[in-house]
Amino acid sequence: MKIKGVLPKIARLYIGLFIFALGIVTTINANFGLQPWDVLHQGISINTSLTLGQASIIVGLLLLAINFYLGERIGWATIANIVFIGIFIDFIMSMEMIPIGSSFVMALVMAVIGMFLLGLGSALYIGVGLGAGPRDGIMVAFTKRTTQSVRLIRSSIEASVLVVGYLLGGTVGIGTLIMALSVGYFIQLAFKICKFNIRKIKHRYIDEDIRLIKNWMQQRKNIKIKAKE
Q1: What's the farthest any 2 CA atoms get from each other in the chain?
Q2: Whether 111 contacts 179, CB under 8 Å
Q3: What is the DSSP string of 208-229?
Q4: 66, 135 Cβ separation under 8 angstroms
Q5: CB 74 within 8 Å of CB 206
Q6: 3-class secondary structure, 228
Q7: Is 134 exposed, middle or buried (0-12, 13-18, 19+ CB in 10 A)?
Q8: DSSP 8-state class, residue 169
Q9: Helix (H) or strand (E) holding 104
Q10: Averaged in consecutive runs of 10 residues, what is the pLDDT profile of the chain (229 residues)?
């Protein structure tokens, strides 16, 4: 792959991850109740010395290990998703870039904006074609290994995450229910506006690059052997 083609992809990847993190912080600061995964992250943060972003990274790394164990392929964007969304969350919160929702109307508007930003960020970073996030990977892995629908698997995972996060002290409110029921719509809306069709994306995974490197090294070795002959 040529450098000229790589740099725009890298830029799009990290812009997408930043916007995704911006969406997460916007839904958190809406003060309206958190999304299931953020309830878990907050619960972990409350019970440890970790920041919200660091808790997100730790959960992501655990999910990455599970994905790998279950045989799901890992992309470079998967790694970037785990590390940089957490970093961006902490940066955005430390800079106080997003206000705190002070009324029901403001909270609702912020939740809507946050969900749209999640969709926009997803369209940008997934569209790079270097893999998706580890949470989506878990959903795919369990769907493949059961006879259940994607909807049931995803709902079961998020319900389990929500319960664990709540027991750890994470914030659950009316916004949690509203976002759980409507986040898919706003993500789909963002995809539509961006004319992004996730089914048309062909991903490139880390194992492919490893094979390319091994082949390149073997070719170099063969050239040296021939040169000596």
Answers
A1: 79
A2: yes
A3: HHHHHHHHHHHHHHHHHHHHH-
A4: no
A5: yes
A6: helix
A7: buried
A8: T
A9: helix 104-126
A10: 71 94 94 90 95 95 90 89 95 94 92 91 87 82 76 81 93 86 79 76 83 85 74
